[in-house]
Amino acid sequence: MTTTPTADETPGTFTDEQYGAQRAEAAVWAGASVLITDRRGLVLVERVGYRDTRLLPGGAVDKGESPAQAAARELREELGVTMALDRGLAVDWVSTAGANARPAMRFPGEVLHVFDGGTWDDEQIAAIRPRAGEIEAVEFVEPARLPELMSPDNARRALSALRARINAAGPALLEDGLPIAPTVLDRAGVLSTARPRHHFPFHTGPAPECLPVHQVWGWLFTPDGRMLVLLEPDTGAACLPGGTPELQDCGDPVLTLRRETREEAAAEVGEPLFIGHLSSPDETCSRLRYAAALTRLGPAPVDPATGRTYIRILATPEQTLELFDWGEPAVDQLAALHQARTRLGIPKAVRQPVSEPAVGTFAL
Predict the structure, then answer these.
(1) Where's the Nudix hydrolase domain (predicted)?
(2) Same domain for 277 and 355?
């Protein structure tokens, strides 16, 4: 008769049979899913016939499979797409309570891996062939809609994985969809509300003199090429420093930029470079964009216009754009920004974890 080892015994005292029996008693399920976005940052979700909530592509890890193999197999079976998956975004410990599983399932807990399926272009999206009889539809949705469309645990996991992708610090370790070591993006709830959507054409030339300036925003560079970005404290929505011209600015957009960045972010900048403007067919105004070197940052202030204190973060220009929904014109603005960066003598930033800036002076 084989006895099960007690908890205070050490593995070295077990027979192979006893050790295997003890581990089998603690066995959990394993699953894998894939996070895919389009060029606008919308997330691919599946509508399936057997659930009333949306899912990321994925499923159970079969016997003898690795999680990466399972994720690739599920993509082939569900979407008709063959691709290797070699980058993880999150590993989630899903508890019995967190999964809210039906008692009949005898759910023992699950370790679920979320892999990065990348950003798909129009050609890749057109090649999707949903599995008949299982996948009723595939759609790309704004990240903020995931809690509305998915079960609570799946939505938490997908948003945590998406933030981990933007943050670029490696896979996030989750428990029931929430990071055990939250980043500033997690704490701020980034992507929990709809991203600002401005698909306005970008022009590198001067704004028409006949149009009043409605907005002046600045891309403010740190010496390592990252940008100062502001997050709303209650929603996590992102914005660039800047704002609306006021009478005290005497019609000078540079004065508007300096005043707004000082009021919103306690930031001082060097000589700004004009990089272009946005136009809207529905409005008779222009929105100006500048680039400048960040020279000093004071303690986070209360913005007199809103009465709130923004959360300040540093991110690369590319990471910053993932916090907005600016459409195809964002490509042109990014190109103009990098040209200005070169003129300012600032290096291109290496993708790195998003961080909160230290107070002090920035020396170029």
Answers:
(1) 27-163
(2) yes
- Is 300 found in the same domain as 273? yes
Q: Distance between the two ends of the chain, CA-based, in angstroms?
A: 75
Domain boundary among 151, 183, 215: 183
DSSP 247: G
User: Higher confidence at residue 364 or residue 53?
Assistant: 53
The pair of structure tokens assigned to 329 is 């014109």
Report which of 146, 125, 121 is spatially closest to residue 55, judged by C-alpha positions.
146
Among the listed ranges 2-11, 79-88, 107-116, 216-225, which one has the minimum average pLDDT value?
2-11
Domain annotation covers residue 332:
yes
Residue-range definition of the domain harbouring residue 239: 202-361
3-state SS, residue 317: helix
Q: Are 267 and 241 in contact (CB under 8 A)?
A: yes
Looking at the fold, whether 123 and 170 belong to one and the same domain comes out as: yes
Kindly indicate the confidence band of residue 364, based on its pLDDT and cuts at 50, 70 and 90: low
Domain count across the chain: 2
Per-residue pLDDT of 161-204, as tens digits, reads 999 999 999 999 999 999 999 999 999 999 999 998 888 999 99
In a domain, 357, yes or no: yes
* Run of H or E residues at 152: helix 152-167
Q: What is the pLDDT of residues 49-96, one digit of tens each?
A: 888 999 999 999 999 999 999 999 999 999 999 999 999 999 999 988
Residue at 117 is within a domain: yes
Q: Closest by alpha carbon to 37, among 169, 175, 141? A: 141
Collapsing DSSP states into helix, strand and coil, what is residue 184?
helix
CB pairs under 8 A, 24+ apart, for 125-128? 125/38, 127/80, 127/81, 128/79, 128/80, 128/81
